[in-house]
Amino acid sequence: MPSRTIGRSRGAIISQYYSRTVRLRRRAGWPQLRDVGRSARPSLRLYDLELDPVVLEEEEKRGLLVKELQGLTVAQRDHMLRGMPLSLAEKRCLREESRPPRGKRRVRGRHGLLSCCSRLRDSCILASHNLGLALLSGLQALMPWHYALKRIGGQFGSSVLSYFLFLKTLLAFNTLLLLPLLAFIVAVQAAFPPAPSGSTPAFRGLELLTGGGCFTHTVMYYGYYSNVTLNQPCASPLDGGQCTPAAGGLPYNMPLAYLFTVGVAFFITCITLVYSMSRSFGESYRVGSTSGVHAVTVFCSWDYKVTQKWASRLQHDNIRTQLKELLAEGQLWQRPRRACGRLQQGAVLGLVWLLCLGTTLVCALAVYTFSELVIQQSRVSAERDWALLALPLVVCLLNLGAPYLFRVLAVLERHDSPVLEVYVAICRNLILKVVILGILCYHWLGRRVGTLKDQCWEDFVGQELYRLMVMDFIFTLLDTLLGELVWRLISEKRSQRKGKPEFDIAGNVLELIYGQTLTWLGVLFSPLLPAMQIIKLLFLFYVKKTSLMANCQAPRRPWKASHMSTVFISLLCFPSFLGAAVFLCYAIWQVKPSSICGPFRTLDTMYEAGKVWVRQLEEAGPGVSWLPWIHRYLVESAFPIYLASALLLAVIYLNIQVVKGQRKVICLLKEQLSNEGEDKIFLINKLQRIYERKERSRAFQPWEAWKQLLRKAAGDPVASAGQRDDRGASQPPERGPLPTPLSGRVGRTEEAVMPPAVFTDDWDAQ
After folding, report:
1. pTM given for the model
2. Which residue in 144, 316, 529, 543 could disulfide with 522, CB within 3.0 to 4.6 Å?
3. Three-class SS state of 750
4. E strand or H helix at 615
5. Rounded distance between C-alpha atoms, residue 542 and residue 530, angstroms
């Protein structure tokens, strides 16, 4: 730090750290400098006598410091150099000079030989240090898109950066969801494939869009998985289609593994979502105030370790964008409107909301009508491959066209705050997508299950979700090309200046939430759907990043997205994940599985697989009787759910009370700091008044002396008597106090109100 070097020269610093290295060597048992030969010591004979003696002394101390640094270990040398208050260039020079030359053996000990243990210890320390640096570099490289995210944040602000951070979060969620599905379902079934039921159709290319054809009889869909105990010969199955495990084998109950793996994967996702949401709330709504953040951004944001030009330019753009956002955030609420203007804005908002809700209702009716038309068409004749894409095509067209209409209507509202504008757009798009997904869920579980009694309806639902995901990705790419690239070309051609479009945060975020909801809905029917979502997110990141850099501009009204990540995670948790969990729970507990495919083909519900396993445990013997008891009283009973809900509410209440207590303590500490500041001002004013009173009395004493001299010269007996009295008293003359440095810096707010008086009297009077 610069404050550590105030009033100190380089020579003093080097001398101080030379003494430290000497003490460190003595503690470590290293030989002293006097044990080194005279040829290795620095000598004044090598220096020119005409040089400055200060420079000679500094160079001598530097040489001694280098010699002592060479005697230290690598870790001690780095620690010592890191703590020196010198510039980076000086530290680099000292490190290079203290590094021993290659090929030359370092002499230690009395006999000048390095023992094998010392060499082995130094080699291990150096190897561990290099390994740690390599691991740190590897971890830095494993962080995806580190530089790209910094560049986006510095050029476009935190509002656009929040979209890409949310995409990165979804990538982590899907990876966490895919791992248990691959380990306990897909890999096991691929190791023990079932017997083929018929000839496999040839690949034609259209399967990439429809998800059918040769993909149907693979591990991608529910119908491929068997309902037997794997790794066992199934000679005589018991009730419920379960096979009796042979003695000495390792049974793997595939129906039970399928059900529990999906449940555990969803539970892990739920815990991760809740943790991420709570952490995001803690970062966004911190306890305390944000006063002084402008000064912190201006004076404390620069990283002085940055040496490369591109990194410094990136950091410069980032700080500039942060300052723009902070200044814009402070000016948002400084534009009050009149009553007439507020009434007019309220009327416009009501009209726009009615039009948006009407558009959502029309889209919902269109999806419902078209889905019923598709069902009637399937009853008349078998659906062709291209006809399967009709419903996903209509849904994606409505999801693409309605948000554009919402954006056109939002121009009439003219919100003062861009944050409020984004939140309103998110709310409208969310209502549209939730309504459409609700109608599709009713179409799959309410209508398709009844029309596909003799077929595997689970495979159809999985393929339908696959088609929706693929079509959504294609329409997103088309929207990126047509909505951003073409708009930029048109705007640049029609206007003299470059008028690039802004990045639509609300629409793009809702597209991510919509795609993630489709993934969660299809996990039960297509275990590899999270893998498709991961591939889609990877492509989407690079496409959106390239389009953002080439076709978009920074927001015209910059705003700080302090709570945006919290809002995104909350929307992902409550409408999206909660709706998908309700959909899957209804499919597991209420809907009858297909009788010709899947691991639950002979059961009334998917949940029956757990009951069949419990009956097998009861028949196995008394050694495992505690497992059926746990299932009966902890899984099937409703009391644990109520108990867990009560504990959760209690934890939430305690956390709320803790936060309230912290806020009260912070308010008390702020008040105490304010009182201490006022006390300091009060005491400084008192000292200032005392000093001024002394100055006045000191300035008044020469006039009294002149008066006495004049009276003495005129022969006044009173003056002579006063002088004799003063000499008889032999009192030393009073001297005024020395000037204080506070006299030029302290305000004089109270000195015009109170006359000069004695310090104790003033203190009592106050």
Report:
1. 0.71
2. 529
3. coil
4. helix 608-620
5. 19
